[in-house]
């Protein structure tokens, strides 16, 4: 009697894919190594089954392709596959470990991304890359001028001071150094232009998306953060409560509990880093505003600032913002002052 293949583990690569076919109880049916074209033909001819893959580069594309062919796709984070690898690591062992992980009833899966989500992610990643490149060039310019005795604080806000030094004919700078510094200033200007153009693109997309518009009604949520949530976060229905979403973002304490004793450490930072970073940045802006004289008082934040440093209060506020995001999206409502409290 021919064994029925119910799950196929795929170790993805650029050109050669390793497949591990198994039955529902994990019994091995086949091990295959196929090229990219052979893999697509093989899966098109194979009866519908579960396809398990690591959530790595190219996984979301193949998830969409397998879904189009009628297969059920399960993407698993690589860190959850690693414990199932037996001794030596190779492509065949990786494919088998993927199947072992997918057969676990409590395994957590990654939601496949759409083409639109991946396109928006490219916008975020490119803007972040340009910002990092600009920061690198500014720091290089500061260090070069420091060699000649000219000092400026960190940050693009103090770039004007560096420009004045370079253009000052009385500054004690060799002409060669002055010319090179002007080249760096031109590079900073070009990067700033590109960053501003991408910012306009993000603002436009954020205005067009209903979810992004709704999220921006929350204090501390700008167009970039709102669109990041829509781009990188899975459907909120995957989380039972707002606390689960905050935990997914890594905005909860790291646990080292044992023997019935709870030991909580620093923030875990185990989740989606882009959304987490933007939420903390937005929360810090709200905290700075709350510390200004005459600013409207948020009772919860005021009590927190009385007991904790501003940065700790910002992380706590980011946690509450995450729970508020879950509540707003699940209920289809704009921000209300009670929304965060009701999500707890």
Concise synopsis of the structure shown:
With 344 residues, this protein is of the alpha/beta class.
Please give the structural blueprint.
Blueprint: E1 7-11, E2 16-22, E3 28-35, H1 36-45, E4 50-54, H2 59-68, E5 72-76, H3 78-81, H4 91-102, H5 115-146, H6 159-167, H7 175-208, H8 210-215, H9 223-232, H10 242-248, E6 253-255, E7 264-267, H11 273-290, H12 299-307, H13 310-331, H14 339-343
Parallel strand pairs: 1-4, 4-5
Antiparallel strand pairs: 1-2, 2-3, 6-7
Helix pairs in contact: 5-7, 5-9, 7-9, 9-11, 10-13, 11-13
Describe the structure.
The chain is of the alpha/beta class. The protein folds into 3 domains: 7-102, Nucleotidyltransferase, domain 5, CATH 3.30.420; 115-208; 210-343, no CATH class. The chain is built from 14 helices and 7 strands. The strands form 2 sheets. It has a 5-stranded mixed beta sheet. Strands 6-7 form a two-stranded antiparallel sheet. The chain is globular and about 85 Å long. It starts with 6 loop residues before the first strand and ends with a helix.
């Amino acid at each position: 009697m021919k064994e029925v293949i119910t799950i196929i583990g795929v170790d993805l690569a650029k050109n050669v894919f390793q497949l591990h076919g198994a039955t529902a109880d994990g019994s091995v049916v086949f091990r295959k190594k196929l090229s990219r074209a052979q893999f697509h033909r093989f899966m098109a001819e194979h009866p519908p089954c579960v396809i398990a893959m690591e959530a790595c580069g190219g996984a979301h594309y193949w998830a969409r392709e397998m879904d189009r062919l009628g297969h059920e796709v399960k993407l698993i984070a690589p860190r959850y596959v690693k414990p199932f690898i037996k001794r030596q690591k190779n492509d065949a062992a990786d494919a088998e470990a993927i199947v072992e992980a997918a057969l676990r009833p409590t395994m957590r899966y990654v939601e496949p991304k759409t083409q639109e989500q991946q396109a928006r992610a490219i916008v975020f990643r490119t803007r972040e890359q340009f910002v990092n490149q600009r920061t690198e060039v500014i720091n290089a310019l500061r260090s070069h001028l420091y060699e000649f005795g000219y000092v400026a604080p960190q940050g693009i806000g103090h770039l004007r001071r560096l420009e004045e030094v370079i253009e000052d004919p009385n500054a004690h700078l060799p002409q060669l150094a002055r010319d090179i510094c002007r080249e760096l200033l031109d590079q900073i200007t070009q990067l700033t232009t590109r960053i501003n153009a991408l910012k306009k693109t993000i603002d436009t997309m954020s205005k067009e998306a209903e979810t992004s518009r709704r999220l921006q009604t929350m204090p501390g949520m700008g167009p970039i953060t709102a669109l990041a949530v829509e781009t990188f976060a899975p459907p909120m229905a995957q989380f039972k409560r707002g606390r689960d979403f905050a935990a997914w973002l890594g905005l909860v304490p790291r646990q080292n509990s044992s023997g019935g004793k709870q030991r909580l450490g620093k923030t875990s930072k185990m989740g989606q880093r882009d959304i987490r970073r933007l939420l903390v940045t937005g929360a810090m802006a709200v905290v700075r505003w709350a510390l200004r004289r005459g600013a409207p008082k948020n009772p919860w934040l005021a009590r927190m600032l009385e007991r904790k440093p501003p940065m700790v209060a910002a992380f706590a506020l980011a946690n509450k913002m995450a729970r508020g995001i879950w509540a707003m999206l699940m209920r289809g409502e704009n921000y209300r002052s009670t929304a965060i409290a009701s999500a707890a």
